[in-house]
Fold these 4 entries.
Entry 1:
Amino acid sequence: MASLRLRIFLALGAVVIVSLATTGLVSYLNVRYQVAKAVFLQVDEGQAPQLPLSVLDHLVTALEGGASPETVAETLSGLLRETDYHGVVFDGEKQVHGTYPAELADAGPTLTPDGSLHFRNPESEDAPTTIKIRGPFRVFRNEAGAALGYLYLFPNRGLTDGSLPDSMLPEHPARRMMKKVNTWQSISIVAIGLLALFVLYRLSRRLLRPIEHLTLAVREIAAGDLSQRVDIEGDDEVAELAAAFNAMAGELARQENLRKQMVCDVAHELRTPVTNIRCELEAIRDGLMTADAATIESILEEVLSQSRLVEELQDLSLAEAGTLALHPETLDFDKVIDGACKGFASLIGQAELSLVRQRGEAAKVRADPERLRQILGNLLRNAIAHTPAGGTITVTTSRDEAGAVVTIADSGKGIPTEHLAHIFERFYRVDSSRSSETGGTGLGLTIVKNLTELMGGQISVTSEAGKGTSFRITFPESSGS
């Protein structure tokens, strides 16, 4: 397959060549016509002699009456004898019907449909000399509008013995001038064409060089090198493409770093509790510990903690794939919120926090109750983890034009502005610590966002450093009972 550069070069080159060829042809024909008219014929309606109307009428009468060529030639002779012009009269069938001087008939003038006069070249019967003029000087018509004849005039250039004037011979200086003009015109067209093709080649290289660099960078990224970037030059569409590529490559690199960090985080989250469980079980096996209720309860808590991590990973995978099973019902929005608050009242109390519940106008939503409680639970756990003792968690329900709204706000340390755009991304943690008490695995908010959108809702966050964070979730209202 031809490269894009070659196709652009060929397409634009074809346009240049056709344009130059057309220009050259039109110029050649125009020069040929103008030289023939100005040098060979030197006649137009403004330069031709003024013909007496009485003589013209006599010619018309002769043609109408079918006068012989000799009669027409005699009339034409009386018309042109005192001028420096020769003439040819053709009848309505474009046949010669009289010439002046009479010897001109021996040169075999013929009239073609395109308005050209042809004379035989006495030096070569097979190469007639063509003299083009702007059509007949005069057309004679009858009352019905039919052509009776045509009158052509051209200046006297020494016609003798039926031979063409020297000025009409092929090697006349004017013809040599035409040849030189055409030669230089051809050279200039070829030179301009070559220059245009060179410019096109350079231009195509300049236009496509960034795309070639992009192609190479894409191949490197496909091979696993996410550090590839391309230089941005100018502000055109190609520059925008390069900027978009760099942004995409940067995002891929960031996601890859997050993935690697997630693997480390998950390994860390699993390593410590699994090690604890193994040590406790080995101690029980070796008789160093007693398998009493407290020990079993401790091991069970560790197992449940890891089960939650595995469930979060599974929920996230299903939600992002769009295959998570939902069982929507028409729910009393405030009632579900109240249930979630009661379920976390103990944890909030243990963290020495205050819970403020504010209710607005009652609303009903269509949602999966289990997943809705999971959303609220993740947000409340997040608020508890990031609010210091003595702080407040405020849960507010309301209604607006978009539907039912719940806002969960805390008075914690807030989220730095540079992190707000990324907190819903999987494995992203504002706290770079590996501690599950502060940083977690970075999956909770991602799950919240995916579950909310799967049920037709929207979530947003606002935060101010040192003053707290507020998550706002909106669900469409349900008209069902």
Entry 2:
Amino acid sequence: MNVMRIINVCGVLMLSACSTVMDKNVEWEYVQPEHYPVLNAVGYAPISAQMGSSDAVKTLLAIKASKLDAYRELTEQVYGQRIEGSQELSNLVLSDEELKSSIQGVIRGAEVVKAYAADDDTYVTELRLDMQKVYDLYLSTARPKRIKKVNYY
């Protein structure tokens, strides 16, 4: 009976060893999403609060700040927002509470739709991110694939 087990184990090992020797050819096909959303974001910045020596410098700084704010909003839409919170109790009384938020990501392909002064003291920048354009940019660096067909020899 022990001899039969050894023969069976040897047979299984030989068969499994043959399966790794087989060669195969894998055909891939590229995956394309069914639809592409268009994301919009608006950024605001106060002109008078900017640190500049003249009104023109303050306006230029507000333009940059409103654009960065709009990019922050786009990044939040694409990647989400990380929230960290903590509370500290002392004698069953809340003594300290902290909440932190962070956003991190890379936005490629966004375009400025409008940039304008909304009133005397606020600058506004509107951005649009067409995910079709983002997908095309992504394909230029890394092409997503899925298995189309596998042929064993």
Entry 3:
Amino acid sequence: MMRYLPNENTVFDPMTVFDDFDQDFFGGSTTMKTDIKETENDYQVKAELPGFKKDGIHLDYNNDTLRINANHDLTQEHKDEQGRVLRQERSSRNISRSFYLPGADADKIAATYDGGLLKLTLPKRAPETEDSHHIDIN
């Protein structure tokens, strides 16, 4: 979506063009679309993070809570024929989500990221069995 100036009296704001780019490129969403499926053996998480790079995504599992944090920095630089900078624009985008997924085995969590789709598998810990002890009465 491009915003055009309605007439010559309208003040041009160069950041408006950048905002349009940001809206178009990132889909105008500030949240990540996430699907979580629980099976008997694991949790399966899929999170859509288009436009983010793998090294900008940080995952943490602590106190039965999965945290997904994604950060994206964008810098655009426009130069003229002599190499002089005419315009430089920067944008930063950070989104974060937390999900309570109790009983996952933190040492066995696996994650992949491809084509803007983050996939995690969080295997559940084996149920702890209580040892039964017979107590003799004297």
Entry 4:
Amino acid sequence: MTAVVVLVVAALVVVVTLTPYAFPRTMTDQEARADGRPIIYWRPGCSYCLRMRVALGPLGRRAVWVNIHRDPDAASRVRAANGGDETVPTVFVDGHHRTNPPPSWVREQLNP
């Protein structure tokens, strides 16, 4: 039983550590705004971002993922939308945002 718990915890650590590589099509904030698709702002190590990515599955590739730790403009946009906090995932669709929305809502926005 203890070995299983250790194995599960170790697997979660590996997944969380590798999250920057689990997010497709990462762009800068400027590129993402010009692209026109829904933008999902995220940061490495965020369990809510990982939950969103896993819940969206392959459909998540239709969104543009912007890492706020690598892009100061993106971090600034997230702070402006969230009262000064860098709360992620923050999703922008057609100029409107939702902070930590349910994956079902994001899935609806990504379906053609």
